[in-house]
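WARN no homologs supplied; continuing
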Amino acid sequence: MDNDTLSKLNPWWRSRSGFLDDPSLAALERVPVRFDRSSEVAFEPAPDAIYTLRGPRQAGKTTILKQFLARLASQGVAPADLLYL
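OK structure emitted
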């Protein structure tokens, strides 16, 4: 995968406001009613672990993952250290 594709998948690399430019998170802001799913990703990730996120289509896996990345960035993790692939 080339750098241009990675940069499009991870808009927060260009600027901290990149989370606002993300299509999944922008679509979430337009939804009038939503469930608070923050407790589903309320864990501290281990630096040497690999996690999987599974579920049916259109269940919100991408959105919840990007919300988690935005939360990590707000807690001081450098956006360049956050990779969505």
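Residues 5 and 85 are 10 Å apart (CA to CA).
OK
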